[in-house]
Write a sequence for this structure.
């Protein structure tokens, strides 16, 4: 049976994606930036607080990007239809 997604929750989806991107950046970019800072002269290094703010930046930008994307989807679904997928009921 074909089904369409007629609405995406902007706040909930933005919250989930923002947290996931922040967690990813914390475990990927923070160690990378700390490692790279070992090889950069002290005058050229970013302040330590800047490195810690990277996950916060990703949280905010991830949230806003998904929020805008969901709102745009919800607006456009009236005119072009929603995402379509096939689903079937599983018998127990």
């Amino acid at each position: 049976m074909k089904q369409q997604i007629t609405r995406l929750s902007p706040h909930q989806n933005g919250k989930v994606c923002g947290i996931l991107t922040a967690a990813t950046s914390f475990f990927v970019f923070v160690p990378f930036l700390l490692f790279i800072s070992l090889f950069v002269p002290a005058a050229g290094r970013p302040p330590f607080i800047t490195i810690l703010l990277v996950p916060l930046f990703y949280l905010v930008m991830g949230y806003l990007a998904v929020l805008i994307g969901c709102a745009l989807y919800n607006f456009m679904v009236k005119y072009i239809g929603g995402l379509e997928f096939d689903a079937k009921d599983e018998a127990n």
